[in-house]
Amino acid sequence: MRRPPTAKKLARLLIPTVTAAGLGLTLLAPNGAAAPAAPAGAEAPKAQAQANTRANTHTNTKAKAPRLAPQPASSTVLDADLAPGHAATPTRSAARAANSVHRAPLPATQNAAQRKKARSAAKAAAECNVSDFTSKTGAALIEQIKQSETTCINTLFSVAGADSKALFREEQMVTVANAFKEVAADYPGNNSTSAAQLVLYLRAGYYIQYNQPDNVGEYGPTLKSSVQGALDAFFGSPRAFDVTEANGETLAEAVTLIDSSEENARYLNVVTRLLKDYDSSYDAFYWMLSAVNNTYTVLFRGHQVPEFVEAVKADPSVLTGLRDFAVAHDGLLGTDKSYLTSNAGRELARFLRHAELKDTVKPLVKELLGRSQITGRTAPLWVGLAEMTTEFDKENCADYGTCDLQDRVRDAVLTVKHSCGPSAKVLAQQLTAAELAATCESILKQDPVFHNIVKDSGPVKDDNNTNIEIVAFHSSTDYKTYAGVVFGIDTNNGGMYLEGDPAAAGNQPRFIAYEQAAQDGAFQIWNLNHEYTHYLDGRYDMHGDFAAGQTVPAVTWIEGFAEYLSYTYRGVTYDRAIEEAGKNTYTLSQLFGTTYENADTTRIYQWGYLGVRYMLQSHPQDVATLLGHYRAGEYEAAYSLLRDTIGTRYDADFADWLSKCAGGECGRLPAAAK
Questions:
Q1: What angle do helix axes 379-392 and 338-349 make, rounded to 10 degrees?
Q2: Does 256 score more than 80 pLDDT?
Q3: Can you give the pLDDT at residue 12?
Q4: Which domains does the chain have, with CATH numbers?
């Protein structure tokens, strides 16, 4: 996927909790390292939603950033490994906009049992009615919240219009905050009194009010006082920090609420306590790990709250606490909990942005840099620290040993260079000669299959992208560690295709990905053929750069065709798409309107595949007409064909085809497929 949202939109969408439903994702900590994998059907710190862009992130001191929005819901997982509470820098955002980004889907790792649990959670959310909440006030509202599942409360993060005011006007929020305070007074260390639902409702309110202030109205001192009283009661209760999964969910959400309510300064003691208390006993509990990780959100976003900065200046013990955490838990580096340690370093170094704290922070940062290296087990810590020194103290880079960071990391990590001929080259971390040969063979043999399907007559006008660079990191961890600093991209995805401006002289289209072993253990570069399809499609089917094609909904073709050709060319059955076909979730006319903003990854990828496959098999002449418009840059005409000329004409036939496909009869693929 490639559309980069604006910096302000990023600030709103980029933030946390989601169900790991359907994707088996790992979430990322603020530095882009993987956070704990969510149990099926559980709500986990969110990686972004509809706009699909989150990253290893920093805040640019040269631009005055708006207050980042309270964090979004836990209900929908997208394609995401991402850090709670991190928005991209203006620098990164600008790079994405200039490069026309495609983000690839992540590997799916959930088993059938996990997917079944996730579907149950999704069903519970689907049965939730907003009117059950909007029609109630006072005690009736509290009872409705308490008797609802958290999956139901999560759906409230997406309300709009009059519902927003009915749900989240200040009087309603004060009622819920006071109810949370009552529950917190005798909090039993589990969710038997529905504390998690109350916290989640408050989080939803702050999120909606930030995004829809005209609908909801202002929040004032009455709500602030009520929320402070509730959080004081919860964090002061004797069971709030119990190290159990039963307690972890409410604790993790309450830590997030600290930031949503902009109480980052008031609860610095909660941050320092969790960082100090963490030990291996937490590791058995997903939600307890999430609670610890969420403290980094409070720190990351606290820099935008003046009271927070003043609190740290008055008591800088949180700074030494971050250093101590990184030192004490050095052993986590190189494990699936590496993000906890590397995030501590990154959030410590982020305080270099404040001149009054630099003398305190600088020696601590230098100490941690000295304990870690640019490559190897400790690289996530070193890179995170180095990025922050570049962001906030670049003029003194020699003091840290982090000058020329982008070039240093690229040269140290991407040491394998190989040509596939005049049309492609590979830059890799650790590919063997045999793996390089297999990569070249795979992409070069895909060309005739592509051309046979789309029946193009050559490159579109003004496209000079004649050679693609394929960048392959050795693992997903390496991709998350290094790709951001080298290429300025988000890493909460399965890879990125950077198209650039195809008309510009010297433009270099580039696909950045990583090795991900196939189910049988065989070597593969994850999403290689999907992303290579984006390159071919952009060169032969889509006039102009990415932004030109996004003036109208075109995502079903862009992502659906990339999925379609990847699976078709490799001769692999797309089981997840066929499973979706049996649900009959979308009509074909709905798929014609898919955008990156209005859809989740299931609609974008699996349903995109289904829509494209149906059209190619059943209505190839319509596809030919559509591509004719795309190639000429006639995007309005292309969308008019889909929306008006075709419209709902094929919906019934598409539904019939879906039923057959779910039963294993999806029709014949092109003869050129392997």
A1: 20
A2: yes
A3: 24
A4: 128-312 (no CATH), 316-403 (no CATH), 551-674 (1.10.390)
